[in-house]
Amino acid sequence: MTNHSYYCCTEPTCTRAPLTQGSDGLTCPNGHFIPYAPGTDVPVFACEPEGANEYSQENAAEVHDNALRWVFNTFQTDEEGLRERLIARMGLKKGQRVLITGAGAGNDLPYLVRALSGRGDIYAQDIAKEMLLAGVSRYRTELAASGVGLHFSISDATNLPFADGFFDAAYHFGGINLFPDIAMGISEMNRVVKEGGKVVIGDEGLAPWLVNTELGRMLINNNSLYACSAPLAALPATARDVKLSWELCNCFYVIEFQASTEPLPVNIDVPHLGKRGGTIRSRYFGRLEGVDPALRDRIYEEAERRGMSRVAFLESALRASLDKD
Ligand SMILES: C[S@@+](CC[C@H](N)C(=O)[O-])C[C@H]1O[C@@H](n2cnc3c(N)ncnc32)[C@H](O)[C@@H]1O
Ligand SMILES: [Zn+2]
């Protein structure tokens, strides 16, 4: 049986407690139980109800194969080349650990295996068991001799069963537009990737200059997802080295960034030279009540006469008046 010791509980009260493996599922120290999908050792943390959408119907993987063929024929793009290019953006190295969210029927798995040069681990997750289990049966045996470990879970990409910083890189292609909380999907990828590791995300979304063209209008009429724009505002405030580009005839956006949970190194205490003075911090947090405008003008004049910045003069005047009492 596969070793599942890396999975963590996704219940909010358990703060990613490590799970223990049993014969029919995984157990949390706080008593939660995560069963395996029937007849498999694939843990089910969260699952789309059967028939809820095109990915959770019985023949979902075949329907998805057809949809993919349509995409690659329409945009006259070679699937192999595209998947290789997108995966190459993570800069994976032999022996690394990579996450793929919304992995579907696993079409990216052979390319990820190749990018890891025969050693490492791939963790593929999807919320639709019909898609993910098709991926398991398509690729687990085929890729078993590759030297790369394959780990599957049925789970929600917006609440991942992994510890912080567990992965070297994370990848998603083709589903995030429909996540109920896109920012949370991106935040989770950022959380589980170690500091400086790459996150790559792509989905339908026309480049802005195509939206109001006839081609753009036809595409959006055909499938409203093409009206989506790259969810840049949903990136974590800590993201580094963000890059936005488009693939598939500029009809799919691709966002790439370096994961980080560290605040940006902005020094908000650098003094401004000149008339006004102060710093980013003092100007934002040190604002006082409104005063008589005539008094304000006298203060400004006096500061100028003394060759001080307004902030420096005000601070000294206020300190002096407090010290007097
Ligand atoms: C268009 S398919 C893409 C599959 C695959 N990435 C590919 O490139 O062929 C989108 C996938 O995203 C999955 N998905 C949607 N919402 C999800 C969520 N919250 N968590 C995980 N997977 C999700 C769907 O179940 C579906 O399998
Ligand atoms: Zn738990």
From TrEMBL:
Q: Which residues form the Methyltransferase type domain?
A: 102-201
Q: Which CDD domains match?
A: RHH_CopG_NikR-like
Could you tell me the Gene Ontology terms of the biological process aspect for this record?
methylation
Q: Which UniProt keywords apply?
A: Methyltransferase, Transferase
Reading the lineage from the top rank, the first entry is Bacteria
What would be an example GO MF term here?
Answer: methyltransferase activity
Protein name per its UniProtKB record: Methyltransferase domain-containing protein
Organism this protein belongs to: Azonexus hydrophilus
Q: What is the lineage of its organism?
A: Bacteria, Pseudomonadati, Pseudomonadota, Betaproteobacteria, Rhodocyclales
